[in-house]
Description:
Layout: H1 2-12, H2 18-31, H3 60-71, E1 76-79, H4 86-95, E2 102-108, H5 115-130, H6 134-144, E3 150-154, E4 160-164, H7 172-190, E5 193-199, H8 211-220, E6 226-232, H9 235-243, E7 254-257, H10 263-276, H11 283-293, H12 297-310, H13 319-342, H14 346-357, H15 367-372, H16 378-390, E8 394-397, E9 400-403, H17 406-415
Parallel strand pairs: 1-6, 1-7, 2-5, 5-6
Antiparallel strand pairs: 3-4, 8-9
Helix pairs in contact: 3-4, 5-7, 7-8, 10-11, 11-12, 12-13, 13-17, 14-17
Bound molecules: adenosine-5'-diphosphate and magnesium ion.
Adenosine-5'-diphosphate binds next to helix 4 and helix 12.
Amino acid sequence: MMRYARCVIQDLLSLIPVQSIQEAALKTRLHKVSYCKTDNMKNPFKYGSVISGDSFCNRKNELSDLVGAMKNGQNMFLYSERRIGKTSLILRALQGLPGKQYLSAYVDLLPTDGELSFTTATAKAIVQSISTTADKMLDVAKAFFRQLAPSVTVDDEGRPVVTFGIRRESGQEASLEEALAAPAKIAAKRKHNAVIVFDEFQQILEYGSDFVERYLRSIIQTHENVSYIFLGSRKHLIKRMFLDKSHPLYRAAGHYPLGPIKEKHWLPFIRKRFQDAGKGITDKQIRSVCVLTEGHPFYTQHLCHVLWELCEEPNEVTADLIEAAVQTLLDRESTAYILLWESFSMNQRRFLKGLANKPGRIRPFEADFIQSYGLGSPSNVQRVVQSLLERDVIDYDNGSPIIADRFFRIWLHKLGVG
Ligand SMILES: Nc1ncnc2c1ncn2[C@@H]1O[C@H](COP(=O)(O)OP(=O)(O)O)[C@@H](O)[C@H]1O
Ligand SMILES: [Mg+2]
């Protein structure tokens, strides 16, 4: 590992002053802090999975927009960077619908790899959203998804689950049509409206044919009692689906970009969680956390989680403690970040160096930026931007490229790359 790390560091030398690396390494040692849990209270900052209830910060406007769109039977693309809170938000919005008047199904497309798994995932979500007992599940499945050869089994915890016997590649189109016709039929039969959410919708671009996209196009305009919501984490792909004329879903639905949570909403949320544990944090410190994470929910929760652990009751968060929390996170990620950095070409590194160096809006195609970072020409920048977008290393925010992983940006900056 040491030899490997040395290789990488040598690689970095063309970009970084040696002194900066030594200083960064020294800081890393100084800030290695061990965790000290002073009480049995659970850490109130949650990161990683879908969050609900008390862990959910604000998003009031977004919730009201989305619930309104669902109630009006509108179709919508909801997209953002990864881990900004789409899934948590949409599940909360579904909870906000009057349950007795709505059929709502949430379909996670991440594990799907083709039309057949798309169809079974959709059918399963619909069946399970309207029935909880084994008998009822089987009735619904047989009534609306006959072509999928449904049966109901019981899982390890004794809960009924619907499974489908269909294995044939042939007949896939008919079963897909049957599955996608079901929400409108069920809604009409029950005199309900329906909301169908497809999460990680860009996954359908991996299927090898555009049949799902084409078929959705043909039905979503006609199903007036169904609202289709398409969630996407890979912004450049999802945007292509509704902005590019060659895609069947071009302009077929409204679009709703989801951004970070504003500082004014984080302030009471973070303050309260420290106060409840007998720990102090000033607004100034919360603001500096938000500057570091750019208000991105996952990174803000993650940094606050570590900060909360490091701050012992009845102490107050200080600037040094925030620095220590950041360093703890960077230490954990450093192996992955070194590997990532090593995988970039020289031009990619120069470009990322520019992004890490400059806070705020960056105009990467302007002569000033190209010259400052030795990128040669706008076409070089174009190639770099495209390749880093494809790998989800960067994203576009208000027309400016940003490094998607906020901690990676800080790591680059601290290493002296920036
Ligand atoms: N409204 C919110 N309030 C506080 N934290 C949030 C909120 N939404 C998301 N998060 C944080 O972001 C993480 C990722 O949320 P998730 O809904 O899975 O994002 P996405 O679906 O966009 O990838 C959560 O684990 C949580 O730490
Ligand atoms: Mg998600």
